[in-house]
């Protein structure tokens, strides 16, 4: 039964160590992404509003318009 307590303490120590290492690496900027925003700008598509399809739908749904 005491082996479970020893393993629990060891596993918590390792988990806390990895958590501290993660916090230190985040604060030092290791996970900052400075490359993706510059590349994303090159591949952004411009939004083009397609008004002709919406107008044709309105004309076909409106029975008062007889073309």
What features would you describe in this structure?
The protein is mostly helical and 67 residues long. The chain has three helices and no strands. The chain has helices spanning 2-27, 36-43, 51-61. The longest helix is centred in the N-terminal third of the chain and has 26 residues, at 2-27. The chain starts with a helix and ends in a 6-residue tail after the last helix. 0% of the residues are buried. The model has no long low-confidence stretch (mean pLDDT 81).
Compact summary:
By secondary structure, the chain is an all-alpha fold. Helix content is 67%, strand content 0%.
Shape descriptor reads: elongated
**Biggest pleated sheet:** none
Task: State the secondary-structure class.
Answer: mainly alpha
Order of helices and strands: HHH
**Rg, nearest Å:** 30 Å
Keywords:
3 helices, elongated, 67 residues, mainly alpha, 0% strand
SSE topology sketch:
Elements: H1 2-27, H2 36-43, H3 51-61
